[in-house]
Design brief:
Blueprint (H helix, E strand, L loop, with lengths): L1 E6 L3 H12 L1 H8 L3 E7 L13 E2 L2 H5 L4 E6 L7 H10 L3 E4 L2 H17 L4 E2 L11 H7 L5 E7 L2 H13 L3 H10 L8 H4 L2 H15 L9 E2 L7 H10 L1 E11 L5 E11 L11 E8 L3 E8 L3 H17 L14 H4 L7 E2 L1 E6 L3 H9 L3 E3 L6 E5 L3 E2 H13 L3 E9 L2
Parallel strand pairs: 1-2, 1-4, 2-3, 4-5, 5-6, 8-10, 10-18
Antiparallel strand pairs: 7-9, 7-11, 9-10, 11-12, 13-17, 14-16, 14-18, 15-16
Helix pairs in contact: 1-12, 2-12, 4-5, 5-10, 7-8
Bound molecules: L-homoserine (HSE).
L-homoserine binds next to helix 7.
């Protein structure tokens, strides 16, 4: 019998209880042992729950109970989750989490702590909800050098962009609908400003390239400024706009990582990832492109990933050696943002905008104007630093830049 504890009984925590109870037989068969939920930590009371007698309010009860060998952390946020997880790992209890903020901020430290204590820190649910991606990256694709990962990692923004494309909604209208349907948070800035996708790309980059990439180091742009005109130009160009989190290993070993809206071609495998779904494209040296697709959020999909980690934690006899990355200074890990290669769509307003853009950019692809008085174009490839300088030069020449969206090749 394995005793487990669950920290948090919110959407994901209650989903974990539901999946564990509902599929008990097959889960225990796979784990090779019976599983007892011994404690659930929550400040609230749940008198109607069949587990009402397992609720505790004091974390120390769980920490000090040596019979508890696996702890599920689904509180969200860095604190108190970090303190709780650190104390569990220090005592040799394996921890399973869905908490992307915790992994993105503290992953290197917690993985090292787990290794020192011969237990595990697992986080399959932190990226892509129910989509398997963490284990495929470090186990199933273990024979590959990972060159690049690009993904639609946030369901809320993907829902909003899908509504803007399919139904011609404006951003505010689509966001209101996402909130009404319960996809977006009441304060949706973590979603729409790209921070949620940034945390997920940090986890993927750290795992794929072996050194911790921190959210504060990663250029992150959300989707608030996307307009119906941008949507029309993307369509005319032959694609869609998606919020893409991506990371790539550069030839000198440094890493490119960023989050931004992007034009991607209609025939890209990511272009058909719509609504609240997530899609993650991994470019491996042996496999070429592999795409993972499914529900990136929600109670049961996320609980599915958590419970599969619980099974692995029970089965593991020691720390899983492939699930590791090192901490390192930012200058050793990330290439400077200004050096990243970029091709961009620009929407410009002002006299002789096209002529001025041609002088600055050289060969451009002009798009047919959707609105009078404006010019839209696709630039040739350059560096981010060059792009920023040319945009400044346009503005100094009385041209307003109404839109700038990167163009990606996925
Ligand atoms: N807010 C997140 C999303 C939840 O919309 O994808 C899952 O991480």
């Amino acid at each position: 019998m394995v005793d487990i504890a669950i920290l948090g009984h919110g959407v994901v925590g209650s989903g974990v209880v539901e999946v564990l109870s509902g599929n008990r037989q097959s889960i225990e068969k796979k784990a090779g042992d019976s599983i007892r939920i011994k404690y659930i930590l929550d400040r609230r009371e749940f008198p109607q729950s069949p587990y009402a007698d397992r609720f505790v309010k004091d974390f120390d009860v769980i920490r000090d109970d040596d019979s508890v060998s696996v702890v599920v952390e689904v509180l969200g946020g860095v604190e108190p989750a970090f303190t709780f997880v650190r104390e569990c790992l220090s005592r040799g209890k394996s921890v399973v989490t869905s908490n992307k903020e915790l992994v993105a901020e503290k992953g290197a430290e917690l993985l090292a702590l787990a290794a020192r204590n011969h237990c595990n820190f697992f986080f399959e649910a932190s990226v892509g909800g129910g989509i398997p991606i963490i284990k495929p990256l470090h186990l199933c694709l273990g024979a590959n050098e990972i060159h690049e990962i690009g993904g639609i990692l946030n369901g809320t923004t993907n829902f909003i962009l899908t509504k803007m494309f399919r139904e011609g909604m404006a951003f505010d209208q689509a966001l209101a609908l996402a909130q009404q349907l319960g996809y977006a948070e009441r304060d949706p800035s973590a979603d729409v400003d790209g921070h949620d996708a940034c945390r997920k790309v940090c986890i993927l980059a750290s795992l794929a390239f072996g050194r911790h990439v921190y959210p504060r180091q990663v250029f992150t742009q959300g989707i608030r400024d996307i307009t119906p005109a941008d949507v029309a130009y993307a369509s005319q160009w032959g694609g869609v706009i998606k919020l893409i989190g991506r990371c790539r290993r550069l030839p000198d070993g440094k890493v490119l990582a960023m989050v931004s809206p992007a034009f991607i071609r209609r025939d890209s495998q990511l272009a058909g990832v719509d609504d609240v779904f997530n899609g993650i494209l991994v470019r491996g040296s042996a496999t070429g492109d592999v795409v993972f697709y499914g529900k990136g959020a929600g109670k049961l999909p996320t609980a599915s990933a958590v419970v599969s980690d619980v099974i692995d934690a029970i089965q593991a006899s020691d720390t899983v050696a492939t699930l590791q990355w090192q901490d390192a200074g930012p200058e050793e890990v990330l290439a400077p943002f200004g050096s990243y290669p970029v091709t961009a769509y620009l929407r410009l307003e002002g006299e002789d905008a096209l002529v001025k853009a041609r002088v600055l950019f050289g060969e451009i692809r002009q798009l047919v104007s959707e609105n009078s008085g404006e010019t839209a174009l696709i630039t040739p490839e350059m560096t981010e630093e060059e792009l920023a300088a040319k945009v400044r030069a346009l503005e100094e020449n009385d041209i307003r830049v109404l839109g700038l969206i990167r163009v990606l090749d996925y």
